[in-house]
Each structure stands twice: as C-alpha cells, then as structure tokens.
Amino acid sequence: MKILVVDDFSTMRRIVRNLLVELGFSSALIQEADDGESALTMLRAQSFDLVVTDWNMPNMTGIDLLRAIRAEATLKGMPVLMVTAENNRDQIIAAAQAGVNGYVVKPFTAVTLKEKLSKIFERIAASGASA
Amino acid sequence: MSTSLSNPLASDDTMPEELRELLNSPDGPAFEQALDVMVRQREQHLFRALGQLARDLHNAVRRLGGELSADGLPDMVADARQHLQEALEMSGNAAHRSIDFAERMLPQADDLANNGAEVMKWTEGNEAAAILARQAIGFATDCRDGLSDLMLAQSWQDLTGQRIKKVSNFIGTVESSMLELVRLTGALAGAEAPVSVERVTSQDDADRLLSEFGF
Q: Which residue, A20, B4, B92, B138, has most beta carbons within 10 Å?
C-alpha cells in the first residue's frame, strides 16, 4: 500500500512513518510532503492508496488539501486520515463535512493510529462490497 | 439667508464664542473655511495623540527587548522572532536525534528478543541459561516498548513548535500593525509616507519611519 504522509514538521512525518512501519506497512512505499500544495502535486503525478495529513501547514492547509482531493475527479475517492492538534468541535465538523475518512488528535499512540486506519479500511471494504 | 435666524445653535450660550461668531457670520465661504480650520486642528490633535501612542508602544517594545537583552536575549523584535525560530530548529534537531537513537536501537531490541527466544529452546537442564534468556527477552521487550514511547514523545516538538510559530507570527503582525498605525497617522497628519510599510524590515527602518513622522 502506497501512503503519502503530509506534515510541515519533519519530526512528525518521521514519527508517523515509523508508526506505519510498526503497523506492518512498507517503509519503501511511504512518501512524504511538507505541505498541501506539494502533496497535491505528488498525488496528481503518482498513484497513492492513502493520505495521512496534518491540518496546520503553510501554503495549503490539510483541510484545503482534503477539499482539493474531493474536488478532483481522479482523486476524490482517496482515503484521507487527518492527524492534527486541532481538536475543536468546529474544525472536526468542517473536516467531516469535507469528507475526511478518519481524524486522529495529536499526541496519539500507535494503538489509536491502528484503530483509525482499521476503521477506514473496514468502511472502504464495506462500501466496495455493497457497491 | 442669515444663518443666525435659521439656526438655534447660533444663540447657544454654552457654545464657544468663536463658533457662535462663525454661525452668525453672513459670509458663507469664510464660515466654511473657518470651520475646516477648526476641524483640521482637532484632527491634528487626534493624529498627534495616535502618533504618540504608536511611538510609546514602539518604545515599550524596544524597552522590553532591552530588558531581555540583559539576560543575553534578543534586543529587537526581529531578533525575538529569530530566537523563536532558532528554538524551533534546536528542538527539532533534538527530536531528530532522539528518533535516530530509537531507530538504531529498536532492531537491536528485536534481535535480542529473538535470540533470547532461540536460546530458550536449548536451556533444558541449565537453569542459569534459562534465567539469562528470560531476562534478555524481558529486557528486550521493555526496551522496545520504551523506545516506541520515546519516539512518540517527540511529537511534542510538533505541538510546541506550532505554538512557537503562532507566537512568532503574532509578534510579526503586532510589529506590522504598529508601523501601519504610524504610517497612517503620519499621512493623515499631513506628512507624505516616505517608505511603504512593506519595505520596513529592520529596527533602523522602523526608527527612521517614526522619526520622519515626528513621533
């Protein structure tokens, strides 16, 4: 599974990468971007199976990246997990309305990340089976 | 038509003499000109007060910087932002070093646990070896958990870093707003803006701009 990790902090990208590897994902298939704009460019150029993105980033925020993904025909079905320090009600609602697949509040544990990822894949499998 | 006949304000005793005379004056253009001068005078007072306020605020920020400077801290607003940026980078470097350590040690902990499990298969009749193997497995497992926690704990660098970035941006906004206030009050008070706010990048520029407006 090819995963794009988007965060302006290199430490957080590295932590998310390590946690994903710990959960069994291949490190070689994990790529990184430091803001929404460069992530969108990568998503248009290559095929990915999952996006894990932060909210607060320069140039293009995570919520704008999510909206851009949902607005683009070739990307709109992309599962997006938001991993963010933003935990106020309005922002969570905004992310849900924009079509986020999962929402993890920082700081988080490998167990939480695993739970959210499992839910995302369960829902995708269920929607695929019912389609 | 006489202004005094149609305007009850012209006979108001509480009104300043100067204004009453103006209202009673039959010379319309002179009245308007005099009124403009009065309004302008009042505006000048306001703009001077605003300018002084901006100057005081600017000096307060500089004084604060000077006090911090005594502790080896920044002596200018721009420096304060630079110091925050440096703190951000240093905490980032420290977090990366911790993650380096965890990444280096995690495979060793896995190897130790695997080797301990392998040795356990050959410890029948050798209680000392069995104890050592169990200890090695326990230690390796604890190390693994601890190293994972250590790595996750570095996510606080991201959380604190985001706050540092917000404070740094806030300081920048306050600085720009203050200079914009100086520019506006200076322009309204009659002086032409000598430089645009966007081009004010250093403390010297800020001081020069303030001085040119007479604040």
A: A20
Instruction: Give the DSSP letter string of chain A.
Output: --EEEE-S-HHHHHHHHHHHHHTT--GGGEEEESSHHHHHHHHHHS--SEEEE-S--SSS-HHHHHHHHHHSTTTTT--EEEEES---HHHHHHHHHHT-SEEEESS--HHHHHHHHHHHHHHHHHHHHH-
Instruction: Please name the residue of chain A whose CA is at the shortest distance from the CA of residue B154.
Output: A11
Q: Point out the residue among B99, B148, B159 whose CB comes nearest to the CB of A14.
A: B99
Q: Which residues make Cβ contacts (< 8 Å) with residue B88, sequence separation at least 6?
A: B161, B164, B165
Q: Does A15 touch chain B (CB under 8 A)?
A: yes
Residue type, B186: G
Q: A102-105 and A30-33: which strand pairing?
A: unpaired
Give the integer Cα–Cα distance in Å for B26 and B22.
Answer: 9
Find chain B residues with C-beta within 8 A of A14's C-beta. Answer: 96, 99
Give the number of other Cβ atoms within 10 Å of residue B192's Cβ.
8
The answer, as to whether pTM is greater than 0.80, is no
- The nearest alpha carbon in chain B to A7 belongs to B158
Task: Report the distance separating Cα B95 and Cα A118, nearest Å.
Answer: 28
Helix axes B28-70, B155-188, angle to 10 degrees: 150
Closest-CA distance of chain B to residue A125, Å: 30
CA-to-CA separations, B37 to A46, B19, B33, B34, in angstroms, rounded: 69, 12, 6, 5
Written as six digits, the tokens of A67 are 């909206």
User: Buried b vs exposed e over A21-57: b needs ≥16 C-beta within 10 Å?
Assistant: eeeebeeeebbbbbbbbbbbebbeeeebebbbbbbbb
Is residue B77 pLDDT above 80, yes or no? no
Q: Is the pLDDT of residue B75 over 90?
A: no
A chain contacts of residue B153, beta-carbon cutoff 8 Å: 107
Confidence of residue A6 (pLDDT cuts 50, 70, 90): very high
Distances in whole angstroms, Cα of residue A40 to Cα of each of A31, A48, A68, A75, B64: 13, 11, 8, 10, 43
